[in-house]
């Protein structure tokens, strides 16, 4: 599914010009990568509502700039410190034949039927809510499903254990294999089990 919206090429640049745009209900932005950077202006309210949709952050976007289509992904947004206002937005052009890096949301399922919850009296803590992946634009998933139905008490799920869709690779920054979710004992449940088990 491709999300489409319109933008206009922005000629006047600088702080004053951006302020005038915002006053007129417009949002200054830029499309960069694969050629020259293209300053654009967008309808603030339309983008504000799109940004509230999870899928907007992990989708290939089609931006109609004065009739010319730009294919891009969302890279960055600057928000006003206390007002519900986007101040600036950055998009990066993508090439259908080149792999791209993006963070995609994790959707957890099976928590409530896992042995950790049903038998172990645990609560499941979702440590990460997104992971970095690399893939071609055509393979970009809207989200990655994490099945927790087999999780046992005291166990954790690591990034390397997540089943990724075809054509999608995990991108890890830094050392180790980050924990995505873990089953934590609820204090009351652990005590109710009695003193039999040596901790």
UniProtKB/TrEMBL annotation:
Pfam families: Ribosomal_L25p (PF01386), Ribosomal_TL5_C (PF14693). GO terms for molecular function: 5S rRNA binding; structural constituent of ribosome. The keyword NAD does not apply. The keyword Calcium does not apply. Residues 99-184 form the Large ribosomal subunit protein bL25 beta domain. Keywords: Ribonucleoprotein, Ribosomal protein, RNA-binding, rRNA-binding. Gene3D superfamilies: Ribosomal protein L25, beta domain, Ribosomal Protein L25, Chain P. One of its GO terms (cellular component) is cytosolic large ribosomal subunit. It comes from the Bacteria. GO terms for biological process: translation. Residues 6-91 form the Large ribosomal subunit protein bL25 L25 domain. Part of the 50S ribosomal subunit; part of the 5S rRNA/L5/L18/L25 subcomplex. Contacts the 5S rRNA. Binds to the 5S rRNA independently of L5 and L18. This is one of the proteins that binds to the 5S RNA in the ribosome where it forms part of the central protuberance. Belongs to the bacterial ribosomal protein bL25 family. CTC subfamily. PANTHER family: RIBOSOMAL PROTEIN L25/GLN-TRNA SYNTHETASE, ANTI-CODON-BINDING DOMAIN-CONTAINING PROTEIN, RIBOSOMAL PROTEIN L25_GLN-TRNA SYNTHETASE, ANTI-CODON-BINDING DOMAIN-CONTAINING PROTEIN. This is Large ribosomal subunit protein bL25. The gene is rplY.
